Amino acid sequence: MASEAAPPFFAESIVFLAATVVAVPIAKRLGLGSVVGYLAAGAAIGPHGLQLLGSGEDVLHVAELGVVLLLFVIGLELDPQKLWRMKRDIFGLGSAQVMLTGLTLLGVGLISGVSFSTSLVAGFGLALSSTAFALQILQERGQLSSSYGQRAFGILLMQDIAIVPLLAMVAILAPGEGPSTAAQIFREIILVLAAVAAVILTGRYLISPIFLFLAASRAREVMLTAALLVALGSAGIMHTVGLSMALGAFLAGVLLAESSFRHTLEADIEPFRSLLMGLFFVAVGMSLDVYLVMENWVILAVGVLLVMGIKGLFLWGLSRGTGSPNSDAMRIAVTLPQGGEFAFVLFTAAVSNALLDYQTANLLNAIVILTMLLTPVACLGLDKLAARAKAKGVENPSIETFEEATPTVLVVGFGRFGMVAAQILTSEGLEITAIDNRPDRIDYARKQGYKVYYGDATRADVLSAAGAGKAALIAMCIENDKVMGKAIDLIRKDFPEVLIFCRATDRAHALDLTKRGVDFQIRETFESSVVFGRAALEALGTPLDRIDQIEEDVRHRDEERLAMQLTEGMYAGMDRLHKVTPRKTVSDEHDEPAE
Asked: In Å, how far are 40, 376, 473, 516 from 34, measured between CA atoms?
């Protein structure tokens, strides 16, 4: 009986997975990061290595969706106001870096005897850093939100924008092409503006109501499908008019940064992003021609040193000149000196337009990949310098200065209890993030001026996206005891350092929370009942000092009973109930033993 044929790409998938499972842990153990492991795995299994797979170009087309999803997730972290505050880094620092690095490398090419068009394409192509590569490094190190991480991101964003005029430059320089007419240029501008407007209007006015409707259905898979549709749909709109797909996804992410569904979107997309990003770097590694490197190692070594040296020098100098401390400038310089994935796009377009020959494009691609491989080594070297200086007791601000993050609180559950608790915390100026899984509550809270996000507290990825790992305290204000218990277990496992404060619905729940080892719990019914009883006694004419004495005694007996119930069961300590509080006399107070 003939066996059934394997599905398409089945064998290739097994090879991909096996190579990454071996290479990535080794690279991380060596301190080089997962990206180097993916690149090495691609080089090993590709057509220039063990030849287990053919060309990586087909894989690269699919894997580029990982870059799209990465930029969408990054956009979710930036609201429009924050992006506007970064305008100097994006348009000032980023533009200056691209222009200075590109012109300098152009000059190097002309001095070396290379033609003007080839030097121009090569110089500006190599001036672009890898958004996917650099952001992956920053995320792995947990430094994307640091001051230098934000400046580095601003530079990368400008480089993504720069690919559009660079591709136009290639088309203009192409031999045999006539100049574009004014009508054609005007038509292109109108198409680009229309695409940007379509993404902005859809993101601002249509997406949130759709997600609100989908959330009410409680179908997680539909929410996930919608999240992917938003990211890829916005990327497709931009790609249709000739803009970067990643830029379109980033814009959609920024527009949804203020949405109530921001954290759930991020958590849903993260697994797809991680998988596709790994596939992207494997495909890039597959394109590295090891034989070409060996035959032209002198040219490539000089090229790699020039690119990383010139780019790193400009990054450091421009960062210092625009206000960064020396430590931040050095970290930017060692994080962004590599070539980028858009260089592959630019060089491919140049080959198609007869501006580069195939051999030159391969050499330039090899330079880009080698700079990617060497960037984690440079980062590791800077880390070791910082560690050595710290071990010697040298406070060297030129190597390491970090700002402490401000304390934040994550409020889980934003009903009546959570809203009042949040009001007290914000009154002290603390930063609050709140999540809830009921769209009606989220809508009501937002109308009251609170920023509340849709999220499931029993999902570790949602808690992480909402900032549980950075929070100083998590306030569990939900009503469902089982949901709270599951969430507490997740938090204790994944975020063991954070304080957990809980709202207990009743006495049994309070006992359960105590056994789980939460840092603080309070029974809302007990506290409101105490306040109720105090008001009743006061209305009946009981003196205030006597009311205080009664409350103190009732609380003391309740604590004793709780301690007994923890070991003996719910019905222990019944004798502590229904007792009359003994009256204190003046003589009793004088007879108390001195401490």
From this structure: 10, 10, 31, 36
pTM of the model: 0.60
> Across residues 472-493, what is the average pLDDT?
87
Residue 328 has pLDDT above 60, yes or no: yes
The two tokens of residue 254 are 């920024």
Which range (87-101, 173-187, 302-316, 413-427) has the least confidence? 173-187
Closest CA to 286 of 20, 54, 56, 19: 56
pLDDT at residue 54 is higher than 50: yes
Both structure tokens of 246: 């990643």
Phi, psi of 315 (to 5 degrees): -60, -45
- CA-CA distances (angstroms) from residue 198 to 10, 165, 211, 235? 39, 21, 18, 12
The DSSP secondary-structure symbol of 576 reads G
Architecture of the 10-389 domain: Up-down Bundle (1.20)
SS3 content of the chain, % helix, strand, coil (to 5): 70, 5, 25
Number of H helices, E strands in the chain: 27, 6
* Local structure of residue 513 (DSSP, 8 states): H
Contact 470, 492 (CB under 8 A): no
How many whole angstroms separate alpha carbon 26 and alpha carbon 80?
40
- Residue 132, pLDDT > 50, answer yes
The amino acid at residue 564 is: M
Dump pLDDT digits (tens) for 526-543: 777 777 777 887 887 888
pLDDT at residue 185 tops 70: no
Tell me which CATH code domain 408-541 carries.
3.40.50.720
Rounded Cα distance between 234 and 245, Å, is 8
Q: How much of the chain exceeds pLDDT 90, in percent?
A: 3
CA distances from 381 to 185, 274, 303, 392 (A): 48, 26, 21, 17
Burial readout 198-220 (b: 16 or more C-beta within 10 A, e: otherwise): ebbebbeeebbeebbebbeeeee
Higher-pLDDT residue of 476, 167: 476
Nearest Cα neighbor of 269 from 279, 281, 277, 259 is 277
**What is the spatial distance between Cα 82 and Cα 336, in angstroms, rounded to a whole number?**
22
410 pairs with which residues across the strands? Answer: 433, 474
Q: Which residues pair with 452 in a beta bridge?
A: 434
Residue 8 structure tokens: 């398409």
Q: Where do the structural domains in the chain lie, given as residue ranges? A: 10-389, 408-541
Amino acid at site 102 = G
